[in-house]
Amino acid sequence: MKVTAPELQLFDELKLGLTSFCYRMLGSIDDADDAVQETFIRVWQSWSSFRQESSFKTWVYRIASNVCLDKLRQTKRRIRPVDFSGPAESIVEPRETLPDSSWIWPAPEFSNNPEDIFIRKDTLHICFITLLQLLPPRQRAVMILKDVFEWPSKQIAETLGMSSAAVNSALQRARDTLEREQLRSDEFNRSEEAPDQELLSRYVEAFEQFDINALVALFHEEGRMSMPPFPMWVRGKDDLFKFFTLTRWHCEGSRFVPVTANGGFPALAQYMWSREENGLVPWGIHLLEVKDNKVYHVQNFINRKLFARFGLPDRLDR
């Protein structure tokens, strides 16, 4: 059956909300985009079977939920380097990488979504996305739809093909799991604290000048840096100093472009000098987490494909 323009508009109005839902489910903006595209294809193929027994929105989210659940059956849980192993025991240049499918990745703003004023932006922070990945997929979907999107249990039941009692039971188990994890982990127990503009400016200045002493001085005593897709991560000022010294040749001459990520969290897009391309090219997206007014954790997401998704140029002039 041919889908008409009004029906396409109905789907388009849901697209950003669907992307936001799928990102929370899957932990990757690329996978979320793929899931939304697959949802559209399934909606188009199944249009004649839509009997209006539920709302169009519920029907589309049912399809999107099934797409996400199918994807999650085929993959391992996404994590961060700090969840994968302990900090590096010896400071060497990172070499080993794991596939992109191993890691949680940041996402650009969803602020154009008209539903966003009703959706808690703190549930887009990297720590919360990480917590969600600990839940079984169906519990994850229930929690997102209930505690983030604030849907009634009856609508969630219709979307996920569950009874209202099963929805409430899954929600309670999900909340219990997240509460235990938050109590167990100091990092999960506190909300991600964003850096203020002064700290961000000092970080940019120290990094672009590659003043290692000034850069390390910005870190908390327990400060850390992680760099997916490298599982290696570094903790403590002494090891950070060694690491920055070792990688000077690679990072010197970098430039930053300010962006926002994961619900308005301030971030920095790093461009590094490439002799082969004779210019500054995308390298990583830095998210700085703060503790006691010091940099506690720099998550440098090294993934060139992210830059286009964040609307960033593929090259900067030096």
UniProtKB/TrEMBL annotation:
InterPro entries given in the database record: NTF2-like_dom_sf (IPR032710), RNA_pol_sigma-70-like (IPR039425), RNA_pol_sigma-70_dom (IPR014284), RNA_pol_sigma-G_actinobac (IPR014305), RNA_pol_sigma70_r2 (IPR007627), RNA_pol_sigma70_r4_t2 (IPR013249), RNA_pol_sigma_r2 (IPR013325), RNA_pol_sigma_r3/r4-like (IPR013324)
Domain RNA polymerase sigma factor 70 region 4 type residue range list: 127-178
Residue intervals of the SnoaL-like domain: 201-297
Alphabetized Gene3D superfamilies for the sequence: 1.10.1740.10, 3.10.450.50, Winged helix-like DNA-binding domain superfamily/Winged helix DNA-binding domain
The keyword Iron appears for this protein: no
Domain RNA polymerase sigma-70 region: 11-78
Keywords: Sigma factor, Transcription, Transcription regulation
A Pfam family hit: SnoaL_2
UniProt subunit comment: Interacts transiently with the RNA polymerase catalytic core formed by RpoA, RpoB, RpoC and RpoZ (2 alpha, 1 beta, 1 beta' and 1 omega subunit) to form the RNA polymerase holoenzyme that can initiate transcription.
Family designation: Belongs to the sigma-70 factor family. ECF subfamily.
Protein name in UniProt: Sigma-70 family RNA polymerase sigma factor
